[in-house]
Amino acid sequence: MTKDTVQRAGKFHVDAIQEKAATGKTRGTVGDIKAVDPVMRATGVDVFYGDKQAIRNISLEIGRNEVVAMIGPSGCGKSTFIRCFNRMNDTIENCRVQGDIWLDDEDIYDKDMDVVLLRARVGMVFQKPNPFPKSIYENVAYGPRIHGLAGNRTDLDAIVESSLAKAGLWEEVRDRLEQPGTGLSGGQQQRLCIARAIAVSPEVILMDEPCSALDPIATARIEDLIDELRKNYAIAIVTHSMQQAARVSQRTAYFHMGELVEVGATDQVFTNPRTKLTEDYITGRFG
Ligand SMILES: Nc1ncnc2c1ncn2[C@@H]1O[C@H](COP(=O)(O)OP(=O)(O)OP(=O)(O)O)[C@@H](O)[C@H]1O
Ligand SMILES: [Mg+2]
């Protein structure tokens, strides 16, 4: 990227900020919000905590067989935004979501949407591994059982095994399925949580800093797994690690103060960012 381009991007941005100050409108997203084969589509999403607006007019698609990385400084709204995709914000008092989010052709904020089913179709993996205080087997079997996915114990056993296998954990736990999930190492617990999400055959997996509590070896395993899971699922991942975003994602979305500033192919965003805000963040000038 030439200095001239950076300056032009910077100039563009200053103009946008001045315009925002004058009009009160958001500056809009630079880049293409569309996925090649969208599974989820967010349009014009605003999120408020009480009177305070945390997300401003964000539109973004998550596509099949792709990983979208969401990056940006602490407090910019990544967790708030990713939680919109399976209505996890509903569980936060005072939190209000406006705008539309579609899963295939269903409006997930429709009053008739079954939220329990939605959260099976759009699974979530959190920063801190949170296995249930149950056995390894039960952690994975719980979802299929409540959603009636297995006709009998043999079917359930098969779902548990295949989910653990897809999460890269089967070989390590096959002889200790009755032991508590909380007795596993942090990295194993996170893979157990991924197995639990997979067990109910989701379409989308949301991950909010899934490796931030893990050591580099456990992190590398999860990153390999994310790449593998992409073959079957649409994935969105929030990460503070730029290296991780570059390694695992095909598209990157850069958030800043509640807005989606820029989105594009991961290579482009990291090597040739189109706004100064993105440039400053990825080069470590702030954040
Ligand atoms: N439960 C809540 N009640 C009130 N305000 C909240 C709540 N959760 C988040 N916020 C505010 O919303 C804004 C966005 O927070 P959010 O947690 O989404 O940011 P983030 O980008 O995920 O940050 P981090 O990288 O630190 O996890 C922040 O100003 C935060 O203080
Ligand atoms: Mg967060």
| Average pLDDT number | 91
* Gyration radius, in Å: 20 Å
Structural class, by secondary structure, is: alpha/beta
Summed up, the domain count is 1
Heteromolecules bound: adenosine-5'-triphosphate, magnesium ion
How many strand segments?
11
Beta-strand content bin: 15-25%
Count of helical regions: 11
Order of helices and strands: HEEEEHEEHEHHHHEHEHEEHH
CATH class reads: Alpha Beta
Tell me the overall shape.
globular
The CATH homologous superfamily is called P-loop containing nucleotide triphosphate hydrolases
Write out the strand line-up for the largest beta sheet, numbering strands in chain order: 1-11-10-4-9-8-7
Unreliable residue runs: 1-19
User: What does the largest sheet look like?
Assistant: 7 strands, mixed
CATH architecture: 3-Layer(aba) Sandwich
Span between N and C termini? 21 Å
What is this structure's SSE topology?
Blueprint (H helix, E strand, L loop, with lengths): L2 H21 L6 E2 L6 E12 L2 E12 L3 E5 L6 H7 L10 E9 L2 E2 L7 H7 E4 L10 H11 L6 H14 L3 H4 L12 H13 L5 E5 L7 H14 L4 E5 L3 H7 L2 E6 L2 E7 H6 L4 H7 L5
The structure holds adenosine-5'-triphosphate and magnesium ion.
If you had to describe this structure to a student in words, what would you say it looks like?
The chain has about 290 residues and is of the alpha/beta class. The protein has a single domain (about 5-130, about 200-280), classed as Rossmann fold, CATH 3.40.50.300. The chain has 11 helices and 11 strands. It has helices spanning about 5-25, 80-85, 115-120, 135-145, 155-165, 170-175, 185-200, 215-230, 240-250, 265-270, 275-280; strands at about 30, 40-50, 50-65, 65-70, 95-105, 105, 120-125, 205-210, 235-240, 250-255, 260-265. The protein has a 7-stranded mixed beta sheet, with helices on both faces. Strands 3-2-5-6 form a 4-stranded antiparallel beta sheet, covered by helices on one side. Strand 10 and strand 11 form a beta hairpin. Helix 4 runs parallel beside helix 7 (about 185-200), helix 5 crosses helix 7 (about 185-200) and helix 7 (about 185-200) runs parallel beside helix 8 (about 215-230). It is globular, with a radius of gyration of 20 Å. Mean pLDDT is about 90; it is low at about 1-20. The structure holds adenosine-5'-triphosphate and magnesium ion. Magnesium ion binds next to helix 2.
